[in-house]
Design goal:
Layout (H helix, E strand, L loop, with lengths): L1 E5 L2 E5 L1 H12 L5 E4 L3 H10 L8 E6 L3 E11 L4 H20 L4 E11 L52
Parallel strand pairs: 5-6
Antiparallel strand pairs: 1-2, 3-5, 4-5
């Protein structure tokens, strides 16, 4: 919890509020596909649909020490990971500094995974499955292995699969 004494009393900002601010900034970062919760509490909150912005964000604050924020992210396949991590550090740090008024904010990024969209890798099938991928995602017969008409058989154009070759 971050506390600020004032002449009228004190202001206390919970770590959960700081995590929510960091998570909202994190959601705006290009290349971040999601976050990974740490521990059963964050996992349960994700299942129940609560605390969505703070999911995957840990906050440690101590009086006079500033704020340490650790984010666990999943990046989108194909983006430069170091660039995404630097963007996350900058944007999350700026958002928390602006919102809570603490200048000593350190952001640590843990890349916990990469999300690969279906068909993004060559030969995996699906839309844009790459060369050699047939409809349905399975490759056709290897060269020289024949097909439905048998090894080495040639089908005239217009012949149906499974019919003997024309003579």
């Amino acid at each position: 919890m971050l506390e600020f004494p004032t002449e009228h009393g004190r202001i206390a900002i919970s770590d959960e509020v700081i995590a929510g601010i960091a998570g909202a900034a994190l959601a705006e970062c290009h290349g971040v596909a999601g976050t990974v919760p740490r521990g059963w509490r964050q996992g349960l909150a994700g299942l129940l649909g609560t605390d969505a912005h703070g999911r995957g964000v840990e906050v440690a604050s101590a009086e006079g020490e500033g704020i340490d924020i650790t984010v666990r992210i999943v990046v989108t396949y194909g983006v430069p990971i170091p660039e995404v991590a630097r963007t996350v550090m900058r944007r999350v740090g700026e958002a928390v500094r602006r919102a809570v008024g603490e200048e000593r904010v350190r952001v640590h990024v843990h890349v916990a995974g990469v999300r690969v969209p279906p068909g993004a890798l060559p030969g995996t099938g699906g839309p844009g499955g790459g060369p050699g991928a047939a409809a349905g995602g399975s490759p056709g017969p290897a060269p020289g292995q024949g097909g439905a008409a048998g090894p080495g058989a040639r089908r005239p154009s217009g012949a149906e699969p499974g019919q003997p070759p024309a003579r």
